[in-house]
Amino acid sequence: MAALGGRWVGALFKGKGTGVTVFMSGTRAASGISKDMLPGPYPKTPEERAAAAKKYNMRVEDYEPYPDEGRGYGDYPMLPAKSQHERDPWYSWDHPDLRKNWGEPMHWDFDMFIRNRVDTSPSPVPWNTMCKHLFGFVGVMLLMFWLGETFPAYQPVAPKQYPYNNLHLERGGDPNKQPEEEKHYEI
Amino acid sequence: MGAHLVRSYVTNPDTEPDPLKPAGFAPDLGFAERKERVMVATQEQMNAAQLPVEQRDYCAHHLLKLMKCKRDNWPNFLACKHERHDWDYCEHQDYVMRMKEFERERRLLMRKKRTEEAQVA
C-alpha cells in the first residue's frame, strides 16, 4: 500500500475518491459509490425527472419527488408513508426481516418504519366505531356506578345495637363527658 | 328478596325505614312492657381480650368463652363446636331482632301515614 509511494496523500488532498479508496489507490471498495448514484438536486426538466427515476429504480410514472420547498429533499422520491408491518409477511422478500427487495427505492423514513418501530397498520375496526364502543361502554359503566351510589341495595335490617351507650368509651369518647343514655330492648 | 328495595325506591318511598338511621319511634310504643337487653361481658373483660370494636356487642360473652376454649384446646381446631354454636346462635338471634326492629319501624310508619290520611279525609 505504502509501496505505491505517497500517491494516497495526493488523492487525499485532491479529494479523489471516497471512503477507504482514498488510502488504497487502484482499489475500489463496495462502499465506494460513484457520484451519479447519489441523490441530487430537485429535477426541473422532464429529462432530469426521467434520469432521477432511473437512478432510483422507479418507473417515470411512479416517480414523484418531494415538493421543492427548500427542505433539503432534493430529487429523493416521495413514497407512501406506510411502515413495513403493512407488507405481505408471506412473500419471499430478499431481506425478510426488512420486508424489502434488493434495489427497491427506500422511504425517506425507512429506519423509522422497520418492524421494531413505528407501525402504520390500519386499525381492525374503523376509528369512529372504536371510539363509540369504548366511550359508550365507559359511559354505561359510570352510569351504573352512579345509580348504585344513589340507590344502594341494603338488607332490610335495623342498625346493629351496641352496649355501653353505643361503646362510647371504646370509640374514643371523652371519659369525663356523660354520653346520652341509650337503652336497648329485646323484640 | 329485594321487594323492600322496590318498595323503598319506587312504590312506597315514604313508609320504608332508612336502614342507616336509628328508630324514629319510642321503644315502648305498642308494647305493654319490654324486656331490656342484658350485657353480660364487662368492659374490662373485653379490653383484656382485646376484642375489636365491631365484636363488642351483646353476644361478646359467648365469643370470650369461644376464644378461651380455642386457646386451651390448640392444636385441636375441631374442639370448640359447642361454644362456636352458642356464639353463632346468639348472633343469629341478634340479626333476627334487627329484622324485627326494621319491620316494626316500617309498620309504625305505615300506621302513621294511615292516621294522617284519615285525619285529612
Structural summary, described in words:
Chain A: InterPro entries: NDUFB8 (IPR008699), Ndufb8_metazoa (IPR016551). Chain A: It holds the Pfam family NDUF_B8. Chain A: Residues 168-187 are annotated as: Disordered. Chain A: Belongs to the complex I NDUFB8 subunit family. Chain A: One of its GO terms (biological process) is mitochondrial electron transport, NADH to ubiquinone. The complex is a heterodimer of chains A (187) and B (121). With 187 residues, chain A is mainly α. Chain A is 25% helix and 0% strand. Chain A contains four helices and no strands. The radius of gyration of chain A is 39 Å and the shape is elongated. The N and C termini of chain A lie far apart (113 Å). The model of chain A has no long low-confidence stretch (mean pLDDT 88). By secondary structure, chain B is mainly α. The longest helix of chain B is centred in the C-terminal third of the chain and has 40 residues, at 81-120. Chain B is elongated and about 70 Å long. Chain B starts with a helix and ends with a helix. In chain B, 16% of the residues are buried. The model of chain B has no long low-confidence stretch (mean pLDDT 93). The chains are: A mainly alpha (187), B mainly alpha (121). The A-B interface holds A 151, 153-164, 167, 169-171, 183-187 and B 2, 4-5, 9, 17, 19-23, 27, 34-37, 39, 43, 46, 53, 56-58, 94-95, 97-105.
